[in-house]
Amino acid sequence: EAGEAVDQAAEKTKGVDVEPGRDAESEAHAQAQEQAEREMAEAELGKLKDDIGRQLAEISAEDRPSIEVEKVSDGLLISLTDDFRFGMFATSSAEPKPELVLVMEKLAKVLAEREGRILVRGHTDARPFRTERNNNWRLSMDRATVAYYMLVRGGVPEMRFESIEGRADR
Q1: How far apart are the first and last CA of the chain?
Q2: Amino acid 11: pLDDT
Q3: CA distances (Å), 17 to each of 13, 20, 85, 153, in order?
Q4: Burial 127-140 (b: 16+ CB within 10 A, else e)
């Protein structure tokens, strides 16, 4: 019976988008505020992309990783990935290539000028990798830690880092 009463109540309010206690004016204000926040987030995303592009303009595409910047539920995501023309680390190693060190230094300049928390996630390729002391999980964590060190050395305050994670090939 309780379920039936809820269903009947739902039928009576169908088509009503206004929350109880909100009039049309306050609903319009809330929608305008949400739209303004979306526009601000899009503007910040565009500015971040532009700033990164300016910092990396002197570096040829062959000497840097593929870089994507996108809006995600937690904030802005900057992804640096290997591709056929550029590898960030020596194979099965957390030793960064010199070109990556330069890219991370320039990326650190951009991030140091902004506020907000930072999460660093390291990855590996899908090739199975295992030694007595290492595997893809540990390697991805080592790579994330190296990226963290490069960003801090480049001027990003250490207190902004919320976590450093290894994700293996996932």
Answers
A1: 47
A2: 46
A3: 9, 9, 52, 51
A4: eebeeeeeebbbbb
